[in-house]
Amino acid sequence: MAKDRFSRRDFVKTSAAVGAGFAGYWVAGGVKALDSTSPNEQIQFACIGISGKGDSDSNDAKSHGKVVAICDVDEGKLNEAEKKRFKGAQKFNDFRKMLDEAGKGIDAVTVSCPDHNHAAAGLLFMRAGKHCFCQKPLTHTIYEAHLMGEVAKEKKLATQMGNQGTADNNLRKVAAMLRAGAVGNVKEAHVWTNRPIWPQGGKRPAEKQPPENLHWDLWLGAAKERPFGDGYHPFAWRGFWDFGTGALGDMACHTVNMPFMGLDLFDPISVEAQSSGNNKEMYPNWSTIKFEFPKNETRPALSLTWYDGGKRPPSELFEGKNIEASGALIVGDKGKLYAPGDYCEKGFTLLGNATEPKVEYPRSPGHFEEWVRAIKGGEQAMSNFPGYASRLTQTILLGNLAVWAGKKVEWDAKAMKSTNMPELDEIIRPKYRSGYSLEG
To answer: Which of 301, 260, 226 is nearest to 399 (CA)?
Structure first.
């Protein structure tokens, strides 16, 4: 684990390489270039999930190469996409069949399906040597996130998670400011969201016949078998433990991104949650989750508290400033930094004796563009799996582990285990349904 850590020195070194690209921590495991004589050769993409967020991801792929294969469990969406956007692309309902039948012509894959199938699809294609873009959160479980990073590193692939704020230059600037001591030694961080905007806290829906256009068994994929019901497809699956990751998983890879980048928020030693109650079927209506991080080479020990479902940090922390619907507040011994919005896109405000240091940071050519550059043999994307996305996702999903547990979870990051609740192993490391492979 130690070799993956980045220090204040690494960040400065990275920042000095603005013109040449990224260096140090974010480039982990090397890059596998396409087998071509020209770095400008057309990339051939496969896209898993082509509606919802998959609509923009597949369009990005089309803008940077050729989409040769598309996969979706919704027959109507699949046919519409082929007819209107990807004429001539091979169509599949099953991503396993897509790899078997079209794999030789695929260089890279976008994975934009529900959370519970991210790793099942991503691991399958990466083990076949395909570069991978995967929507946030990277995976449904902690062990899957670890494994996605390990396989990407082993295969020397270009990878990227779909938390586009990582490529936002303002977010990178604010992270660099934290590293440069804008608020002094950070004691605590607070991050909140306006999610969920889908149902949570309820029961399993009544069984009913799935719509004719939906391949329900393939939608379930690696998850446990259950009958179809209203509320799963195409959106509200996020609220179910078996399929989504709740408000935390959906948004924290965005809103925690800045403090994660600026404060090395990986490998917490404990996580504790309060919530409206967990019925083990759906995520609670609201939760507040406190992560404790030990001292490391870049900062002292600190805490991060997450709020969702209408909960907010104490108003007195904001010194009269309006509390936006989402954002981050960083509290140090010199002052505070308030960054409203999901990606620091609304700027920042310094409070108390905080100061704005002059900083350098690596500029981004664009989120998807970073991944394409890496595929062509350039620097890894900032949010590559081994060096960044895997570790951010593991941190985030520990919060859900604490919600599930209902009490404080003591955590051993190296062993990937709870030291006080061994019964959580089955939540940390999933068992896939027959026909899907976790270990390869």
So the answer is: 260
The Cα–Cα gap between 32 and 35 comes to: 9
Residues in Cβ contact with 200 at an 8 Å cutoff, skipping those fewer than 6 apart: 239, 246, 247, 282, 283, 284, 285, 309
- Any alpha helices (H) in 272-366, and if so which ranges? none
For the stretch 301-324, pLDDT in tens is 999 999 999 999 999 999 999 999
* Run of H or E including 350: strand 349-352
∠58-61-66 over CA atoms, to 5°? 110
Hey, what are 99's tokens? 């790899």
3-class secondary-structure state, position 25: helix
Residue 94 has pLDDT above 60, yes or no: yes
Residue with tokens 């030693």: 269
| Cβ 238 vs Cβ 196: under 8 Å | yes
374 — pLDDT class (breaks 50, 70, 90):
very high
The pairing of beta strand 270-275 with beta strand 302-308: unpaired
- The CA dihedral of 107, 238, 145, 222, to the nearest 10 degrees, is -70
Please provide the DSSP assignment of 131-177 as one string. Answer: EEEEPSSS-SSHHHHHHHHHHHHHHT--EEES-GGGG-HHHHHHHHH
82 Cβ contact list (under 8 Å, min separation 6) = 70, 89, 91
The per-residue pLDDT for 40 is: 53
> 400-417: per-residue pLDDT in tens?
999 999 999 999 999 999
3-class secondary structure per residue, 61-97: HHHCEEEEEEECCEHHHHHHHHHHCCCCCEEECCHHH
What lies within 8 Å, CB to CB, of 198 at 6+ separation is 235, 236, 238, 239
* Reported pTM: 0.92
User: For residue range 245-278, what is the model confidence (pLDDT) as tens digits?
Assistant: 999 999 999 999 999 999 999 999 999 999 999 9
